[in-house]
Structures are given as structure tokens and as C-alpha cells.
């Protein structure tokens, strides 16, 4: 399996640049993971102060996306990378776009935490919190697979997203029941619904990142491919 | 203003490749625009057959994304483009990702059209249809700006998205009122809500594409920048 040990480069400077950009993506991933953890904490405790921190913190995520993207373009123009180096830079450039969108999902979750009336919806908050912890673990494992450029772990995680989707469908059904039983609570419950939706999207983004890992390692674009086809590709 | 007339290239073959990829993106845009039109038609008439066509047609959109992306990578590796050529390829590679996601939004709208019970929700369908036509015009104008690489048009369109957002907020309020008045209709109305949400996301994607146009023409990454800052940048 290819890995990110890029010492094969004749140009030590180029190796250092690739190492640097790889570290920056992992740092951005770490920041997004903390944002997600805190957004879920804020929602489950309806902690408005923590929610505000998450909302403000998103600027940092956005800034990292732009600066890493600039660096990717600079490296392509200056180093004219080919083969696996080019795939690495393309995979990174796509990964940061998905990390940025996970950051946006955190903001949406944090905004729901500002609705104090959700205090009356504790059972729903517990469901979303559980789903949120699940998504956080999935993001953590995705970043792990990215650090090690582990295509097998990426394939396993790709499948994990289906579980999160089922959890989400269960929550939507639960939310519908609550809305039908107490129509006055509909505006509040819609806030929970947007938060649940945002958590579900985190899983989709992790799945995308897993596809970029497989693309880098296997040199094959597996987007829009079923799990079974992917598994076959991985063995070939 | 820079334009896409790339005849300056010494390599006629390279020019032909850039022309070809530009034409393929515009063709993909045309296909996505038809998908959006048909998805809105299907929803407003609750035409299940047309909705199925849209759902099946999304495979073609996905295939175009993958093949154009491969071509972008191939050109970078083979031609080692710099400056505006590299920006063009990066702008294209990001644009097709957003076009593909607009394609996903069309599928979500088409799926709502399969809910026959929405026949009882005609006023809501009219609101979503109006918003959908608005989004379709915005996509059409975005693709126009892309064909001409017109940064001024892109900036104006970027602002247009705020109108679509307000229209969306109005629809959400309308949906809440209907749900509160008739709780039994909640599951059906949620289908309309997902469709409205998908339409709103089309506007966000168009906004992204406008940012890539500005990036190509002005050489400046304007993501996460306010309209006022952008306007200032454009004048400088």
C-alpha cells in the first residue's frame, strides 16, 4: 500500500511542502472535529455560550480552507507534480472542501442550541445527541484513515454511513410523531430537525473524504460507485 | 477582462483540450438545467413518470462529473499549466462538483413529486414551483456567466441568492402554518419542505460557481467574503 512517506522525492523542499500541507489538513480536521464535539455538547445541554463559540470558530475553519487551497494551487504551479503526488494534492483539495462543509453543519447544529424552548424536547435532544456522537466517531475514524492513507479503513467507513442514515430516518419518524401530537411545538421541533439533518450530512461528507482516500491510494475514482463495486476494485 | 479565448497558446493541441473541457462543462450545465426544469415540472404537476426520468437521468450527470474531473487531472499532469490556465482548470474542477450537487437536488425534488397525496397541498406546490422557477433562472444566468467568464455578472448573481433565501424563509413559515393547522398532513408537508430546501441549495451552488468565475477572472479567492468586500476587490 502506498503511504504518505514521500521521502522518495529528489527535491527535499518539495517533500517538506507536501508534508506541511498534509499536516495542515490534519490540523484543519482536528479543528472541525472539536467544532462538531462542541456543537453536539452545546445542543444537548442547550448551552448558548458554547454554541456562540462554535459559530464564531467557523471563521477559522473557512480561513484554513482558503489558505490550504492556495497552497495546493501554488504547489501544482511550481512543482508540476504527476502521478501519486498530483493525486495527493487533488485528494487534499477535495477533502478540505468537505471539511469546510462539516464546519457549516456544526454552525447549523449550534444555532439550534440557541432555542431555549427546546428544554421541553429533552427526549428528542437525546436522540440527536446519540446520532451526533456517532457522527463524531465517524469523523474521527475518517481523519485517522486520512492520516494513515488507509484505503481499507476508508472502505469500511464508507459502509458505516448507511447506519447513520438509518438512525437519521428513525429520528425523523420520531420528530413527526411529536409534531403530530403537539402542533404548537412544530417550530421548535423543526429546529431539532435541521440539527439532525446537519448531523446526517456530516456522515455524507465523511463518506466523500473516504472516497478521496481510496482515489489517492488506488488511483481510481470511486464516486457514484456501489459498495460492492468498490470492494471489488479494492481487491484488484 | 480575460476571456476564454485561449488562442494565445503555442500548443494548438493544448488550446483544443481546454476548449473541449470548457464545452463539456457547459454541456453538463445544460443537462443539469434541464434536470432542474423537469424536476420542478414534475413536482408542480405531480407527474410521477417525469419524476422517474429525472431520477434515472442523474446517472448521466454523475458520469459527466467523473469524466470531466479525470480530464482535468490528465491536463494538469500532461500540460503542467500555470497562471490563468491552471485557474481555469481548478475553476472547472470545482464547478462540476457543484453542478453534480445541483443534480442531487433535482433528484430530491423529483422524489417529492412521487407523493400523490400532495394533491391536497396545491397552494404549497405553487409556492415551491415559483421558487423553483426562480432558481432555474438563476442557474441559467450562472451558466451564461460561466460561458462568457463574466465576473460582473457573477457578482450580481451572487447577490441574487439572498432573494432566493428570503423566498425560502417565507415558504418555511407557510409550511409551518399548514402543519399546525392540519397535523395529519405533516408527513406530506415534510416532503414539500425537503423539496423547498433542495431548491434553496441550488441557489447556494450557483453562488459557489459565481465565486469560481470571479476566481478565474480576477485571480482571487472570494469564498467566505461579504458582497461589499467582493465588490471592492472587483474594482481594484
Protein described:
Chain A is globular and about 65 Å long. Chain A has helices spanning about 10-45, 50-80, 85-110, 120-150, 150-180, 185-220, 225-235. Chain A has a single domain, classed as Phosphate transport system protein phou homolog 2, domain 2 (Methane Monooxygenase Hydroxylase, Chain G, domain 1). In chain A, helix 1 (about 10-45) runs antiparallel to helix 4. Chain A has about 240 residues and is an all-alpha fold. Helix content of chain A is about 85%, strand content about 0%. Chain A contains 7 helices and no strands. The longest helix of chain A is centred in the first third of the chain and has 34 residues, at about 10-45. Chains A and B meet through helix 2, helix 3, helix 5 and helix 6 of A and helix 2, helix 3, helix 5 and helix 6 of B.
Helix content of chain A: over 70%
Secondary structure category of chain A: mainly alpha
> Which chains share the greatest interface?
A-B, 31 and 30 residues
Uncertain runs of chain A: 1-7
For the record, the CATH class of chain A is Mainly Alpha
Q: Please name the CATH architecture of chain A.
A: Up-down Bundle
**Kindly, what is the distance between the CA atoms of the first and last residues of chain A, rounded to a whole number of angstroms?**
13 Å
Named CATH topology of chain A = Methane Monooxygenase Hydroxylase, Chain G, domain 1
Mean pLDDT of chain A: 92
